[in-house]
Write a structure and sequence with these properties.
The protein is an alpha/beta fold and about 250 residues long. It is about 35% helix and about 25% strand.
Length: about 250
């Protein structure tokens, strides 16, 4: 029987991080070596605990630093923090390759959310217009969510040289009512107590609409995806940009 995988969590006091810490402690294939948070000495923590993977659910302002520190210490980064710029992800991938480590940065670790995006991509060529509505808890720091932005970019790319139609109203009596725009897709963000992380992609054609939706009832939705990612990136030196790559949901023809 293989030895348990040594795993640490950055952001272990947060809502997602604390739940993951509990789940890691309960998994017989994982040895949870502890958590690190704001104000803690990350380098000293990594040197002392020597994890094989560092799971990060923190803030965009510190997540990249945490991940690069993990790589420098020989730990594969598993990053669920959204909002890291593209050049930062590029830098992390290069660092992982230089150290011979696996790693992943995913805007969403919920398997259902990844499948929602994949199914929306299948529908994209068949509809004239699309809009995205994402609904998150009131404390979420960024808008739109990383998942919504990634979805919009993927749908626009799927359309190729036939972009979606995006109806602009002649008179907008309340600024921002039509949402933000990415690839001719309106993106709307809702922040309210009671939500965890929901998203709908609504497609339209004359006389009909199609909605592809994912609902999250608790933050436990992230646990299966994170556990899958930990096992994969500690078992092979490959860098993944999203859970979809890890699940083998490649680009559609």
């Amino acid at each position: 029987m293989a030895d348990p995988i040594r795993v640490a969590v950055a952001g272990h006091r947060g809502k997602v991080g604390s739940l993951l810490a509990t789940a890691l402690q309960a998994d017989p294939g994982i040895e949870y070596v502890g958590g690190v948070g704001t104000g803690d000495d990350l380098a000293a923590f990594l040197k002392k605990t020597r994890p094989q993977a560092l799971v990060d659910f923190t803030r965009p302002s510190v997540a990249l630093h945490n991940a690069l520190a993990a790589v420098a210490a020989g730990a594969a980064p598993v990053v669920g923090t959204s909002g890291i710029p593209a050049d930062g992800i590029d830098k992390l991938e290069v660092a992982c390759k230089e150290k011979g480590l696996g790693g992943i940065v995913a805007p969403n670790f919920a398997i259902g959310a990844v499948l929602m995006m994949y199914l929306a991509e299948i529908a994209a060529p068949h509809f004239d217009a699309a809009e995205i509505v994402e609904m998150h808890h009131a404390a979420k720091l960024d808008a739109p969510s990383g998942t919504a932005l990634a979805t919009a970019k993927r749908l626009a790319a799927r359309r190729g040289d036939k972009p979606f139609a995006h109806k602009k109203v002649e008179k907008e009596t309340l600024a921002g009512t039509r949402g933000g725009e990415e690839g001719n897709i309106a993106v709307h963000s809702i922040r309210l107590p009671g939500f965890v992380a929901d998203q709908e992609v609504i497609f339209g054609l004359p006389g009909q609409t199609l909605t592809v939706a994912h609902r999250t009832t608790s933050r436990e939705a992230y646990v299966p995806g994170v556990l899958l990612a930990i096992r994969r990136v500690t078992g092979e030196p490959r860098f993944y940009r999203g859970l979809d790559e890890l699940l083998g949901l490649g680009s559609l023809p």
